[in-house]
Amino acid sequence: MAPLPLLAAAVIAVVALGSVGAYAAAGQEQEAGGGNDLRQPPVARGLSFDFYRQSCPRAESIVRDFVRDAVSKDVGLAAGLLRLHFHDCFVQGCDASVLLDGSATGPGEQQAKPNLTLRPSAFKAINDIGDRLERECRGAVVSCSDILALAARDSVVASGGPEYRVPLGRRDSPRFATAQDVLSGLPPPSSNVPSLLDVLRKIGLDATDLVALSGGHTVGLGHCTSFDDRLFPRPDPTMSPDFLGRLKRTCPAKGTDARTVLDVRTPNVFDNKYYVNLVNREGLFVSDQDLFTNATTRPIVERFARSQNDFFDQFGVSMVKMGQIKVLTGDQGQVRRNCSARNPGTADGLQWSSLVHTVVDAAAESLGF
Fold this sequence. Notes:
It is found in: Secreted. With 369 residues, the chain is mostly helical. It has a single domain (58-323), classed as Peroxidase, domain 1, CATH 1.10.520. It has 15 helices and 4 strands. The strands form 2 sheets. Strands 1-2 form a two-stranded antiparallel sheet. It has a two-stranded antiparallel sheet with strand order 3-4. Helix 9 (207-214) crosses helix 14 (308-322) and helix 11 crosses helix 13. It is globular and about 55 Å long. Residues 1-36 and 348-369 have low confidence and may be disordered.
């Protein structure tokens, strides 16, 4: 269905909520009972909520403490860690391949264009967490992909966002994706809703997941070059004139090397104001604002703008779904000792030690041991 004219969309918003002020006020609500009773997604085979109970019982608290302390010193790290998890899962699945450095076979995922603006401090934080866990667990026990999933959740919590349980037990891939895989898995910020849904449906996510996960843009920064096509040569008509003027002060010409906040209301707080921004035509990217312009996703945006609890509930569900995309478990992949490099002795995606254990276990089983 074609998007409604802007005036009609505005009328719908006003009728549904009374006024823009009503959106802002409703966004503060914290309904009793914690919002909707959403069905939690099934846990992928090989994952569990107590995966490290025996092997490293303090794993989650170590990650939580590190992230809380690091974000208190650098608030921008929260968005960096969350984005790192997104960029990992959408390309080749949640396997920590985005952390791998390039090799003789070619450049790693970090060198692909969509990943050039990932925060170096986020990569360092993951490696630092890995070092702490290796000391605590007395070896490489917690996978880099599990660290990514936990650090993303804990960065959300540290910014004021929702708590949600993270299934654990992922293994790490010894291979990074190609640049083309990165480009096809990470749609640009100029994408509209139909093209975004095309990408998400291929990995088991739907329109509600799209709107909820986009709410991660309630924290973080955007580069002028990611949205200046909306400013020059002619302004995007879906953008508020006041917002346009504000952006042009930061990005006075096409190609300006500058950044601005993704959420103009509460840029460092994880809340539902991102959706209030969209209703007020203050979404930074096309991929943001089109969520309100598009008839399929607009009702979801309106619901999340009215109720922060609804957003928080759905965000947790959608993050768990996303965090299980094409996960490696069991004997698949490896637990990398250095999150930036595959383990020594890796061949055909497995460590030699894993191959030996597999052969020995199979022989023992055949003998009835």
